[in-house]
Amino acid sequence: MHLTKVTLKNYGVYRDKIEFDLTTTPEKPVILIGGTNGAGKTTLFESILIGFYGQSYFDKKTTRKEYEKFLGNKVHRYLGSASAADSTSIVVDFKFYHNGEVDDYTVDRTWYDDDGRLTEQLKIKKNNKRLDAVEESQWQSFIEELIPKGIAKLFFFDGEKIVKMTEDDNEEIEIKSSFDSLLGLDVVEQLHSDLRIHIMRNMKDDSKSINTEYDKFLEEKEEIVDDLERLEERIIEKTSKQDDLVPQIEEIEAKISKIGGGFASKREDLRIERASLQSDHTALENELKSILSGAMPFTLIPKQIKSLEAQIKKDSEITKKQFEKEILNEKLDQILAVLDQKTLWKGVPDESKLKDSLNAKITKVFDSKKSLKKDMKSLFNFSLLESENILNLLESLTLQNRWGFNISRLQRVSKEFDDIYDKLNQIETALSNAPNDDEIGPLISKLNTLHEEQGMTKNEIDHLERKVTTQNTYLKMINSKIRHIVADQYKDKNAGTQAQLATKVQKVLDEYILKLKEKKLHLLEVYLLEELQRLLHKENLITKVTIDKESFEITLYDKDENAIPKDLLSKGEQQMFATGVLLALAKTSGKPLPFMIDTPLARLDVSHRDNMIEKFFPYASHQVVIFSTDSEISEKYYQQLLPYLSRSYAMEYLPGKGKTRQHLGYFWNEKGERVIAV
């Protein structure tokens, strides 16, 4: 899938109609969207998912009334007036690739004011024509089949989600909650449920006396269901509390703004900027050492690197063919063993002649598939994973050489030092001229207290929601055990043919799910290792990753095969680890979707920010849309991303007009001149 355009009309801070062109090229896959807090950056991020999924984007506990309340707050209201727009809409245009064909889709979700109640209207076009191939009542289901919600959420994530995963050590829960959607097992589970109902309906009366173990699981199931109800009630309670805090915060913010809080906010921004600049100043020396001690010497021998790359690619092909040959030999032996069974030929005339003929033909077919020549030998004998890692390294060296990356960084260090020194002097001058906080101080203190309470409440809600996810996982496990008990009892009672077949189908599905999970978990391990080795700035910190197929617990290993406790990782490393988990899950899904990332560099140190800018954003997907503030993607990082940018936007909130204005370009232009004042 490739997003092409998002259009908002009277949605949030966006008045009238505003469009965002999101088309990219293979050489420039990145779209950068900047905005200060309150300018509508996150609103735009969320609007794409809401445009696709509507109410189903939210948790199942969200009622229609709550959904309408949320949308009511999103309808644009004109400054200085109680009136609001008559309608609001989100339109998402995208291309979808399937079986070598590409189709253009438009999803238009519009809300109208119907006597004080919002009415939702969904329209879908395919190749600029109304989607008539699907009943209108099934359009929402069509979207979710085209782009499964559980998969999409792996590609649309924010930095705060990553922070929560690291703080609460909940990556196992994240994998568990994503795995069924990732594997497409929802349909399989539904089939399971339908078969269980069929079996229960056809059981004889005397076979419904479930044993003690069955009763125990039923009791556990009831306890889990009761616990889920209590959790849902607490979530509603905390959500109501959070809603009550909003008008209190808005009231104090209005008072602060009236007496000159704008300067206080500006001053706090200056302090944050000063801390950031001081951190960058310290990092310059380390950055220079890294350039001179890293891969720079290799950029001087491009021909040798190209020759090495070609040999490794050749070795990889030989390794793959050797693997294929081994598999073919194994399968041939299995087939010949089956053909050698006497029971297979019972009653067949000319058994020996026919068997020899069949053996000869099958052997000939398999021999024709073994394309590996005897003289083809691998030079380095690397594994496929080792070869891929080396090729990735060589590719990065080639890019460095092509763009003169290390040289440009080296030249930039001295200029950055002078620029930072000048900016620090300017900030110190501005701060020294600041007035006293006697009047505004108590209000800001109260506001901070309310924000803290709001944050704590949100964390409590998130914690409760994670408990709900865990309990639902346990509930699924209990249902599975109950299903097996029923199936066994049913078999013992020697019931009808149809039900026996249903039981057999259930067992086949169980085996299918087990094998598929094992295969995908192994693939997830491989992808997670790749991402961690790419994102972490310490080389060879992690050389192996395993994931438990029952608990989904992730274990990291160093080069000596020693397990690495995750609490020994630094905060930055833990966040890169959580990022790697989400990226690996997305890759394992096999869905070519765009990456949409809000607040991507939240709380990352300088070295890991560099890794995200250099190694992730330009190569994460065919399309990467980044939503950022100027403190995250700074001028320095903006200049580094320029070669990969198809386009960039910056949103500026206009307090005097009560709306957001769109700028083509980021906070700075290519000359380093600031476009938007903050």
Task: Write up what this structure looks like.
58% of the residues lie in helices and 15% in strands. It is of the alpha/beta class. It has a domain at 294-403. The strands form three sheets. Strands 2-1-4-5-6-7 form a six-stranded antiparallel beta sheet. It has a six-stranded mixed beta sheet with strand order 8-12-13-3-14-15. A three-stranded antiparallel beta sheet has the order 9-10-11. A hairpin with a 4-residue loop joins strand 14 and strand 15. The longest helix is centred in the C-terminal third of the chain and has 52 residues, at 441-492. The radius of gyration is 30 Å and the shape is globular. Mean pLDDT is 77; it is low at 204-209.
Q: How many beta-strand elements?
A: 15
Note the overall shape: globular
Report the average pLDDT across residues.
77
Distance between the termini: 35 Å
SS-based class: alpha/beta
Alpha carbon gyration radius: 30 Å
Q: What fraction, in percent, of the residue positions are helical?
A: 55-70%
What distinguishing features does this structure have?
single chain; 678 residues; alpha/beta; six-stranded antiparallel sheet; six-stranded mixed sheet; 18 helices; 58% helix; 15% strand; globular
Explain the layout of strands and helices.
Layout (H helix, E strand, L loop, with lengths): L1 E10 L2 E8 L8 E6 L5 H13 L10 H11 L12 E12 L2 E14 L2 E10 L2 E2 L8 H8 L2 H7 E3 H10 L2 H13 L2 H17 L9 H47 L2 H33 L8 H38 L11 H19 L14 H20 L1 H28 L8 H52 L4 H39 L8 E4 L6 E4 L5 E2 L6 H19 L5 E4 L7 H11 L7 E5 L6 H7 L3 E10 L4 E6 L14
Parallel strand pairs: 3-13, 3-14, 8-12, 12-13
Antiparallel strand pairs: 1-2, 1-4, 4-5, 5-6, 6-7, 9-10, 10-11, 14-15
Helix pairs in contact: 4-6, 5-16, 6-16, 7-15, 8-14, 9-13, 10-11, 10-12, 14-15, 15-16
